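Chain A, query sequence.
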Amino acid sequence: MNLTEIRNLLNDKDILLTRSLGQTFMHDQNQLRKIVGLAKLNGADQVIEVGPGLGPLTELLLDTADHVTAIEADLRLVKQLSDRIGERDNFTLQHADAMKLVRKAEFDWSSHKLVANLPYSIASPLLIDLAASPGRPSTMIVTLQLEVVQRLLAQPATKEYGVLTLLIGLHYVLSESFVIPRGSFYPEPNVDSGCIELLRRETPLLPQELCPVFKKIVKRVFAERRKKMMKLLKRDWHEADVTAAFGALGLDESIRAERITLEQFAELTKHLAQARLA
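Chain A, predicted structure.
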């Protein structure tokens, strides 16, 4: 769908979009094709799309993938999408809240690729929940606010480096990315966006049972990122255990969280997981 078609459909059906829900539709065909190209789809791929809206990306995905499952929370948009492309043989449309689906015990997208222009309102928490789940997708090609993309790509010792960087990086390797101008969307948002490719790690940095400990450590030390990390960890673990862990990793006792690499956080998790909580 181009911009004129999107505007006309919304006007004809008297659909008012909600900015607070992140409802903004990409109409730039060049950018849409770049997203599909980044996904490197073939005729065997099973694709999940969250927040298809009126389906401008969905249509391109259907032309390439074996099957596309689109999950849309807005019933008004579900109806329009169903009327337009609901009869396609390789298409399943679900009226559902993606966040609730991901938090169900039976959730499993491990054999799927997620390709989506994620609604801004749920993008970060959805990515965190997806990454933490054993049923995480094999690949995620997602369009996000550019600020979020920059946080995902951030390196240690930068202001963007933090909880999101680490919680996603624990499970995914960040690959290609590109910037999408705000003018590519309708209604036009106040910020630019970016599309990024996330590839599930073939070899996990931590066993699944230690991931909650990793999350506890990361959230604790970045909640007050200007304070010394050792001091913050002593709130949850005994001083002797924290000191021993720092010594084993060769970490300076005055170091702050933003200087610690992902791999060091993973090793710190292994040490503290064996220690007693304070």
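The chain has a mean pLDDT of 95. The chain has two domains: 3-200, 208-273.
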